[in-house]
Amino acid sequence: MATGHKNLSDFGTDGLQDIGNARIAIVVSEWNREVTESMYSGALQTLLSVGVKKEQVERINVPGSYELSLGAQWMAAREDIDAVICLGCVIQGETRHFEFICQAVSRGLTDVSLKFNKPVVFGVLTTDTRQQALDRAGGKHGNKGDEAAATAAKMLMLKK
Fold this sequence. Notes:
By secondary structure, this protein is α/β, with parallel strands linked by helices. The chain is built from 5 helices and 6 strands; from the N terminus they run βαβαβαβαββα. The protein has a single domain (22-159), classed as Rossmann fold (3-Layer(aba) Sandwich). The chain has helices spanning 33-49, 68-76, 97-116, 130-135, 144-159, and strands at residues 24-29, 57-62, 83-91, 120-127, 137-139, 142-143. The protein has a 4-stranded parallel beta sheet with strand order 2-1-3-4, with helices on both faces. A two-stranded antiparallel ribbon has the order 5-6. β1 (24-29), α1 (33-49) and β2 (57-62) form a beta-alpha-beta unit. The longest helix is centred in the middle third of the chain and has 20 residues, at 97-116.
């Protein structure tokens, strides 16, 4: 089935155990704010649904997706943080800038995760258009923020 006709966030929280003791950092890019705010709302709601209390979630904002890696590193370095969710949105423009940003962010977040041996979740949309981003941030294709939070929960369960 073509992805154009599928809810790409077709995931469930079934099987997720209560991770209520976990402390989660969410690093949110301010660039493309309409998209990232919707993703943040989805991620927060999913965390609450698996037992995390709102006061156990710490949010920091960074200017853009490129800065997610350093924001994630600052959060992952903290002993009291169990997982980091990074939310951003990079939309293709007329130049190759898109490619450089996407590659740097994906590599940077992987490096942080491995360096600190903690889940650092890549919740970054890399779309061709603003509409594609909105469709994946609470629109017809679901909310990738939800998926990022579920991924963090699953990784914390695996670590136990």
